[in-house]
Each structure stands twice: as C-alpha cells, then as structure tokens.
Amino acid sequence: MTKETFIHREQGFKWELPKFLRFCDNGKTPPNTSVKDIYCAWNYNVLGYRCPKAGEWFLSGARVAAYYSKNDLSSKYLVVEPVQMFKPVTTINWFPV
Predict the structure, then answer these.
(1) pLDDT at 47
(2) What would the pLDDT profile of 14-43 be if each residue is shown by its tens digit?
(3) Which among 29, 26, 23, 25 has a CA at the least distance from the CA of 43?
(4) Domain regions of the chain by residue span
(5) 15 to each of 4, 39, 64, 78, how far by Cα in Å?
(6) How far is the C-alpha of 8 from the C-alpha of 18, rounded, in Å?
(7) What count of other Cβ atoms lies within 10 Å of the Cβ of residue 60?
(8) Distance from C-alpha of 3 to C-alpha of 64, rounded to nearest angstrom
(9) Do 30 and 65 contact (CB within 8 A), yes or no?
C-alpha cells in the first residue's frame, strides 16, 4: 500500500489523510465486496465533517481507518464513502538472476 497523503480542509480544520484507507468493522463491508476485501486499501471520497448517520462510514484512530456506523452518532467525524478498491500490481520474476 502506498504512503501517499493529501490535505483536506473543512470548517476551519485541517487533516492530513492517507490516499487509501482500510474500511473495517463488525463484518460490514463496502458494497459489492467480500469480507476479505475489507483488509485491502480503498480509494474514498470525503463527504463532510459532521455526525455520522446510521449506515455511513467515518474516519477514526491514530492509524486512520474507516469504521461503519450502526447507529446515528452524536460526535463529529469525517464521513467518507468507499469508491474503488486499490489492487496492487505484483510482478513475478520468472528468471532469477
């Protein structure tokens, strides 16, 4: 997974966020994925800094990851949505030197 980051500014706050995130929580996975895919990196869109509603994904943690909100939350978080799974390309060296 790449270590690229970007700056997101909203409502007077500034966050340095990773370009790709891990979406995980209690067996809930992003749409059209399998359980094993939640451990992969995902590209995402930031929807806003607000209280997440039930069924939304929000960012939290010292090592930032996206978590699924089962209920409406009363604390503000960056709310995100998964866009596309990052599939790293691996190269196999068939002829070792």
Answers:
(1) 93
(2) 988 888 888 775 555 555 555 555 556 778
(3) 23
(4) 5-85
(5) 14, 23, 11, 10
(6) 10
(7) 13
(8) 12
(9) no
* Cα distances (angstroms) measured from residue 20 to each of 41, 50, 76, 95: 5, 21, 21, 33
Whole-number Å distance between alpha carbons of 33 and 85? 9
Token pair listed for 9: 């500014």
Amino acid at 40: C
- What the block records as the tokens of 90 is 């691996």
Q: How far is CA 84 from CA 72, 90, 93, in A?
A: 25, 18, 28
> For position 1, what pLDDT does the model report?
46
Structure tokens of 40?
């992969």
- Mean local confidence (pLDDT), 53-77: 89
Write down the mean pLDDT value for the chain.
Answer: 78
